[in-house]
Amino acid sequence: MPEIEQENATVVPEESSDLSFFDGPTTVVRFPPFDPKGPPRFEYAEHRYLGDYISLQMDDGSKKLGSDVLFTLKNKSLLRYGEINAFAGDFYGSYYPISDGTNFEYQCTRFSNVFWYLNENESRTPGELPVLKDLMKEEVDLFNEAIRNHEDPSVAYSKLKDMTKKLINATIGRPLTQPGYLGLAAINWDHFGEHAHIVYTAGHTLALREASKPDGNLNVAYTINAFANHFLEDSFSAGHVRTPRKQLHGTFDKSADYCAKYMHDEESAIGLAVTNKRGDKWHMYGDKKLKDDVDDQNAKLCLEAVQTSADEVYAA
Ligand SMILES: [Zn+2]
């Protein structure tokens, strides 16, 4: 079990986030009512889409679409890159947020411990995955159908039944050391702002280390990177950029957590004017809008970031 943690003395300076704000125009678009049900998260189908549509360079030099590569994890789970993107953090995590690690190597250790729950745990993971995939199938089908019909997936999302209770039930019998669906959502600041950047950097570094070892395994490196890419992708969701999720958290009084949810929903709907170090300036929307027409540039830049991340693993 990965619960025993040791501080490591190595300290690597953290980079600042690539995302900052500029005084560009802010266009106000549809403003749906707040949905108090379910935790704030970039949706399962959106994460999956990103991993499914990147190109993966394989050991034999061939290039394959992410959706065409089935990875075998250590516990014999069979998952695609996009499925690992989608399950990371939101469904598989620990009670120890990765970004709370006090130095870079400790954050890497915490990342490995969190990845363990998906990659190695045999008490829950392999058996649970078909159940979770089945529960998320309706969302994925609706999302893909909307794209095929050139409709905004956010409209399709409004027709979806809330799955929170079923997801809670599917993960409720986990050991006390492994948080279930709601337990993860309660402490999910790893998915927000600078925290997401820290988690991505730790996971991507571990993937690069695996890929560059003399006996490194490219497929293993891709699975680690796919888990890390979840947090990179979250950084392209407006509701995750500024919401001070860790500060808006209470152990018993949940009013601050509701404020985080409201801020997340508001900024996801209205969007943010953002820029990056390369000089791109665009309007970023949030969860459920990744493949809406209005968020097209954001989706392209996010996909480019994930593709670059995977290419770096191959190049290592
Ligand atoms: Zn997330």
Task: Explain what you see.
It is built from 12 helices and 7 strands. By secondary structure, the protein is mainly alpha-helical. The protein has one domain (20-315). The two termini are 29 Å apart. Zinc ion binds at residues 41-42, 89-90, 191, 230, 234.
What is shown here, in short?
The protein has 316 residues and is mainly α. It is built from twelve helices and seven strands. The strands form three sheets. Strands 1-6-7 form a three-stranded antiparallel sheet.
Provide the helix percentage.
40-55%
Structural class label: mainly alpha
Rg, nearest Å: 18 Å
Q: SSE string, helix = H, strand = E?
A: EHEEEEHHHHHHHHHHEEH
The unique ligands bound to this protein are: zinc ion
Strand fraction equals: 5-15%
- Spatial order of the strands forming the largest sheet: 1-6-7
Average residue-wise pLDDT? 83
Runs in which pLDDT lies below 50 for 5 or more consecutive residues are: 2-40
How far apart the termini lie comes to 29 Å
Main β-sheet: number of strands, strand sense, barrel status?
3 strands, antiparallel
Global morphology: globular
Sum up the structure in keywords.
mainly alpha, PlcA-like_dom, 316 residues, 7 strands, disordered N terminus, globular, binds zinc ion, two-stranded antiparallel ribbon, three-stranded antiparallel β-sheet
Layout of SSEs?
Elements lengths: L19 E2 L22 H9 L2 E3 L5 E3 L4 E3 L5 E3 H7 L16 H16 L5 H24 L4 H5 L6 H7 L10 H6 L6 H20 L5 H17 L3 H4 L13 H16 L1 E4 L5 E4 L11 H20 L1
Antiparallel strand pairs: 1-6, 2-3, 4-5, 6-7
Helix pairs in contact: 1-2, 1-4, 2-9, 3-8, 8-9, 8-12, 9-12
Bound molecules: zinc ion.
